[in-house]
Amino acid sequence: MPQPTGGTSWLEGISAFLVLVFFAASWWRARRRRNRRD
């Protein structure tokens, strides 16, 4: 059940934040590997 007013708003924010952190970590690892290789 979708709740437009509060309730799961903080959960959605945390989920989005975790996803961003996950992608950032993966990208950072790939970048570090490239720099180390160079």
Automatic annotation (TrEMBL):
Keywords: Membrane, Transmembrane, Transmembrane helix. The chain crosses the membrane at residues 6-28. This is Uncharacterized protein. It comes from Cryptosporangium arvum DSM 44712.
